[in-house]
Amino acid sequence: MRVIEVSEFGGPDVLTVRERPDPEPAAGQVRIDVELVEIIHLDTQLRSGWGQAYFPMRPPWVPGTGVAGTIAAVGDGVPTDRVGEPVIARTGNAGGYAERVAVPLHDVYAMPNGLDPAVATAALHDGVLALSQLAPVPLGRNTRVLVTGAAGAVGYWFVPLAKRAGATVLGAAGGPHKTAAVGELGADQVLDYAADGWTRDIAPVDVVLDGVGGDIGRAAAALLRPGGHLGAYGAASGSFGGAPDRDDVVVHGIDRDVVEADRRELTEAALHLLGTGVVRPRIGQRVPFAEAARAHEAIERRAIVGKSVLVV
After folding, report:
1. Could you give phi then psi for residue 235, rounded to 5 degrees?
2. Roughly how many angstroms between the first and final C-alpha of the chain, as a whole number?
3. Are strands 307-311 and 29-39 parallel, antiparallel or unpaired?
4. What span, in angstroms and rounded, lies between the C-alpha atoms of 151 and 191?
């Protein structure tokens, strides 16, 4: 089978197509013939060598955290009638950029009827991350929520879910094509952080959900009222933002132990939101499997609105 391998740390060109033996499912596992591979922004950062303190990856490795496809074989203890079932599955922190994967059955989820498999993969990472970040945050009719990276894959969850809870949502993104998408997504106010002074004249907010970090994240956090909540869940800019000069706000990072403990429940809840149309992710690019480097390059140029997938 073909895999996409990170041969060394570097730019998108280090993504290399390799041949590897098909995986055999162990007891309690299934083998999936992969049709789609989800790409998350973190894939591009780990490929470059960023984040070793959090994710100590060493080349060569096969990136990728989630796939959609069909169960082709089962290991001992798994009913044989699962063969042929369309599913999505989490592959852990690596291993997803492959034509076939073997994963534990507890990391496999039935594909909702009628749902685009590319959209379904959004439950695996984006939905879980969004729901886990929103869980400790007080949302209601009088809540003002600022979402950075609102045109990104996770932003497509935060904006409708905060709106559904009754909050007033300020969606921030960079550049006209992304701010237009945020407006279409339903944000009450759209901010362009590519513009100088983008936070000027913005009234204080109760919640900031920041996946961008850096100067943008810090500028967003500065808008928090005393007692406000900061969900600092990502560093798309290359560094985390946070609120280093604030001791009067509540900061929520990513507790990986809590997320892992609740992952199945969160994923099933995310699939329900997709199946009922509450959340409607935008698939910004579908790229042939062997052209993964092109997909990474577009993400790094900030050219993509929404989610990216590889088509096997």
Report:
1. -145, 60
2. 11
3. antiparallel
4. 11
Task: Tell me the residue range of the domain where 15 lies.
Answer: 2-111+282-311
Same domain, 107 and 189: no
Cα–Cα distance between 197 and 78 in angstroms, integer?
Answer: 57
Q: What percent of the chain has pLDDT over 90?
A: 89
Same domain, 131 and 245: yes
pLDDT the model gives residue 53:
85
DSSP one-letter code for 41: H
CB 249 within 8 A of CB 226: yes
CB of 207 within 8 A of CB of 133?
Answer: no
CA-CA distance, 265 to 274, in Å (whole number)? Answer: 14
Count how many Cα atoms sit within 13 Å of the Cα of residue 70 in the half-sphere of its side chain.
7
Q: Which residues pair with 250 in a beta bridge?
A: 229
pLDDT in tens, 238-248: 888 877 778 89
CA distances from 141 to 44, 70, 167, 245 (A): 37, 42, 5, 29
pTM: 0.95
Q: For 152-267, where are the E strands, in sequence order?
A: 168-173, 189-192, 205-210, 224-232, 250-252
Pair (83, 58) in one structural domain: yes
Q: HEC string of 126-172?
A: HHHHHHHHHCCCCCCCCCEEEECCCCECCHHHHHHHHHHCCCEEEEE
The answer to whether 94 and 63 have CB atoms below 8 angstroms apart is yes
Q: Are residues 150 and 105 in the same domain?
A: no
Contact 76, 28 (CB under 8 A): yes
What CATH number corresponds to the domain at position 62?
A: 3.90.180.10
